[in-house]
Every structure is written in structure tokens, then in C-alpha cells.
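During the reporting period the student researcher (J.K.) took over the structure-prediction task from the postdoctoral fellow and processed the backlog of single-chain submissions. One of the processed entries is reproduced below for the supervisory committee.
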Amino acid sequence: MKVIDFRDADCRHCYKCVRHCNVKAISVRNAQAHIITEQCVHCGHCLEVCPQNAKKFASDMSTVKEFLRQGQKVVVSIAPSYLGVLDYDKPGQVAGALMKLGFYEVRETAEGAAYVTREYQRLLKEGKMKNIITTCCPSVNDLIEKYYPSLTSQMAPVVSPMIAHGRLIKELYGDDVKVVFLGPCIAKKAEAIGDERVAGAVDAILTFEELIPWLNFEGIKIKDCEEKPLGNPDPEINRLYPVSGGIVKSVLAENEDENYRKVYVDGMDACMELFESMEKDEIDGCFVEVNICEGGCIKGPASHNWNRSFLKSKLSVEKQVPHKNAARLDYREIPMDKEFFDHRVTEPVPTEDEIRKILRKTGKYTKEDELNCGACGYSSCRAKAEAVFQKKAEVGMCMPYAIAQAESMSNVILDVTPNLNFIVDKNFRIKECNRKAQEVLGISREEALERYIFEFLDETDISEVLRTRQPILHKKVTLKQIGIVAVETIVFIETKKAVLVIYQDVTKQEKAKEQRFQRKMETVEMAQQVIDKQMMVAQEIAGLLGETTAETKVTLTKLRDSILFEEEGE
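J.K. obtained the following C-alpha cells:
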């Protein structure tokens, strides 16, 4: 069952979850992170650190609401960490708020913790185990079974307080009752629903992180609620289970056992260091309280206020808990045994040649090329190469190589462009220039980076952009100093407090345009000359035609008159 994962399309190539996963139970495919369920210990730390809030949690909220809608008897087993996590004036108000939501009764999981304490005290008195590792934290249990399976014989063969309490509630109310565990832990869901060894003890899991929005939606404020009594007898010191050292204090409340030294360790790194030491047979005769979360359960990944000061939450819990054994509990007979097994994670191991082949894909040909920067989430380049072989990582996750490739591509583009490209800082110092600019200015890159732009070109427009931060786009300018006509583009670079200056050399185009214009003007002049000549010819023709017409008129008139006069004489 997949309890946690990441939503698709929310990853941003940051690999923060991989860096914070000690067991590397995260695969990256197509730049998207995914939880590998078989390797995950469900600590939830990857969800805490995810900057994109991409977590996806298999919620039982709809199941719980359906139980209530059907009118079933639903009892809440509330983790004692509520004392340091939720905001209330009196603890009974928490029970009142939950009953307003429709729950039949609220009992403290610390009641189940008292049963676990009794079992731990029995194991201490028997003194048969080399070391006794507490098994209250399901993430610790997963960590040992999957990654330190040689230590399973040193795990206390006892169920967790949640399972003990779930079985106790069903013993008290009957098998038809529905038990909902409410706490700060994601791993509890994997334990309650995914572990066949304890199946049926708990019917659903809710986290404090889920509870608060539900209360808000229903308009319920805990501090405004009436106090309701908790359904269980006071478990007293067993309420200390969620703070580091709380189990040890609970176990020692009745008597100090001399067979074992009592120590407590919390945090993934510290737990793994402890287990590695135990595997080396360096520890003997210890009762070891272990918690995956630093500070204990009150800093669980679904505690709602997990970013609250650990010390504040710890002091809040300890202030409300009497440091004495739960003498008033009426212990019932419920199954408390749990056997742990070797569930070790096995993965294919690449050969040296296969590792070298993968390393070469990211430009790592020698030992010196292996930067081991950890940006990909793995401690070394070789570890990342192994993950690539195991299909948990992608070759492109190597950030230095990706940056080098991007810079290399940028440099290629910068150098092959026919434009003159400069980066100029606020003091007009040349910070970068491409090959074309170097050729036109007649200097090397090294020399250019020691010079100022105004030594070569007019800096007026550059100064304007530096002042206003407004770009100048596609402005035609004449660079008299270097004898070219260019299209100028200047853009302010906010992160560098500098400008990118691009001069597109259009001198040839301008000369060609000028030549075309000259040819047009010559053609126009020739056309005008032809027109003028034609006009002159037309005028001459018109003059000649005018004279001829006049003469003809005179002659014809005379001819007419002579004819007429002759007729009259007759």
C-alpha cells in the first residue's frame, strides 16, 4: 500500500527530498520524484522538506466520515502528543471538540502505552535479550527489518501502544466498534493498514494535520468547546511516550532495573549510527529507546505544528504529566506479542565497468572529475551512478554537469553569433564579450575584461539603460569609432546589475540599401531627362504644326475667294 508519494508536475529539479532521505527510497523518473514503497520507512521527512508542498498522503478522512454518517460507534485513540501540539485551555476541550464531530468517545493512546510499559518491564526483569530495542516507532521497526535485519532478534517482541490500545478498545466495546487513531505520525497508517501481523486492531488513521482543517470547516474551535472527560483512567507517566526519553522514564517509574543500561536515541542519523554500532557488536546490555523523529513524536511530520519549538512542546507535555506509574489501570488480557523478521532490501549491484560507463556520461573520466557535491541527493558521484544503474536516479540529475553543459552551449551561441555582444557593469566595465566583439575591437578577451566600454564605443545609451532599467530595442546607430552601422539592443540584467549590449552589424545592408537608393535616383533622373526631351519635341512639333496650319488656311481662303469672285464676274 502506498501511504505517501509526491504529486506529478510539482517537482522542480531540486532533489531536496532525495538529499533528506537517509535510505534513498525515492526514485526520480522524468524529473518527477516517487516513493519506493518497498524501501520506504515512512518517516515522512521528505514531505516536510519539500519546497513545492508536493506531498500526497493516503487519507482515511472519507472512511472516518462514512463511519460517522452510518451512525457507527467510533472511538478515538488520541496520541499523547496532543498535549504539546494542539491549542486548548484544558485537555478536556479536545475531547469535547472531537465529540462535536460525532465520535462516541475519546481515549488516550497512553492507556495502551501502559500495557507496553508493563511488557518492557517484564523483558528487563527476564534479562534474556542481549539488547532491548523499543518497538513503539513503526519507522524504526521498518528501518531495522529492511536495512539492519541482523538486529531483529534484539527488537522487543511487543506491539506498539497504538495497536495495544486498538485491541483494548475492541475488548472493552466489542468487535463492532470502529477505532480511529489520531496522531502526528504518517508511519502509523502503514503499520495499522499495511502490516498483517497487527491487522484489525485499528480501522482508520487521522493525523493532527487533517483534523485542524476538518474542525475549521465545521466551525469548531477547541478553546470554545465544553470540557468532556476522557474515557480512560489516567495513564499518568505513560503520557511521556511522545517526548524523547519518555519511554525510559515510564519503564523506570516503578523500579530501577540493574540488568540493562537505559539510553534513548532520536533522529534518523542517530538511529542509523546506533544500529551500525550494534551490528558491529559494540553495544551490549542496553535498553534502547529509539525514535525516528528528532525530539520524539511531538515533532512528527503530520503534527500540524511540526515547526513549533521542540522544547516548547516537550515542556508543555512534561508539565501536564505526573511522573508516577499508572497504578489505577485495570489491565485486561490482550495480545501483546509481535515477531519481527528479516525484510532486507536487496538491489542489483553494478560492476566497476558499469559504474565507469555511467560516470562518463556526465563527463567524469577520472577520480578528479568526481566532485561529490551531493546536489543530486547522493553522497558521492559513485553512489549516484549506482542509483542510475538501479533505475532510482537519472543521468541528468548531476547539477555541475548540467550547468557546465548549459554554460558550454551558451558560450557556443555567444561565440558563433555574428553580432557584437557585451556585458557591461554599472561602472561601464566590460565583464564579458564574444569572439566577434574581440575581432572588431582588435583585442583579446583577457584584455577586454580589463577595459571600459567607453574606450571603444559611445556609452550614452548604455548609461541610459543602467539608469532607467528600461531596454532599448532595435535602435539603428552609427558606431563611428569602429566604422560600422548597427542595430542596437540593450537590456538590463537585474541579477547582475549590468546590461547586455548587442550590436547587429548592418553596415553591408546599409551600403546595399544606399546603392539601391542611388540607382533609383539615377533612374529617376534619366526618366526626367527623357520626359523633358519629349516635351521639347512635342513643343517643336506643335510649333511647326501651327505654322503649317496657318499657311494652309491662308491658301485655302484665297482659293475659295478666287472661285467665288470668278462666279460673280460671269
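The committee noted the following: Residues 59-320 form one domain.
J.K. will present the remaining backlog at the next meeting.
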